Amino acid sequence: MQQRNVELRAALKIGEVSRLSGIGIEALRFYERSGLLDKPSRTQSGYRVYDAEVIERLAFIKRAQLLGFSLEEIKQVIAEARAGESPCAEVREIVRRRLQELDERMREMRRHRNELAKTLAEWDKTGARKGHICGLIENAKIEHGTPQAKNLRRRG
User: Fold this and answer.
1) 61 and 105 fall within a common domain
2) Angle between helices 14-21 and 25-34 in degrees, nearest 10
3) pLDDT tens per residue across span 81-130
4) What is the CATH number of the domain that holds 10?
5) By C-alpha distance, which of 35, 44, 42, 57 is closest to 12?
6) pLDDT tens sequence across 130-154
7) Which among 58, 50, 68, 151 has a CA at the least distance from the CA of 105?
8) What is the pTM of this model?
9) Residues 62 and 12 in one domain
10) What is the count of structural domains for the chain?
11) Is residue 75 part of a domain?
12) Which domain holds residue 137?
């Protein structure tokens, strides 16, 4: 019933859009500034007034985010659709790249997990080890890690 009322009403204030979409007012303003939403008309007193279609657009944005699209990618897809072009080929490419990125991260996570398991097994054999704080960590031979962590390793 609430969705039907949205369809019948052509003018929604920002608070109503927020309540109906579950998206905060500041996020709505950000989406507007970013070009994800069309600029709403304004009342004489300056209040934003949105068309009911904004609810569909916001649902699209949420769904795209759940699929892993960045706001910039969503903006690009919307721009193509506004220009009368089908963005579906670009959407498939974005998802294809995202899957490749996820596969690489999963390989990295498996490598890291294996290194941690190997290190723990060695530590279980070693027991306690003297050091400044904890000799186990100080003498660990872990190769996996972020570039920042690799730069912090002690040399020598």
Assistant:
1) no
2) 100
3) 999 999 999 999 999 999 999 999 999 999 999 999 998 998 888 887 78
4) 1.10.1660.10
5) 42
6) 877 788 888 888 776 554 444 444 4
7) 68
8) 0.68
9) yes
10) 2
11) no
12) 101-152
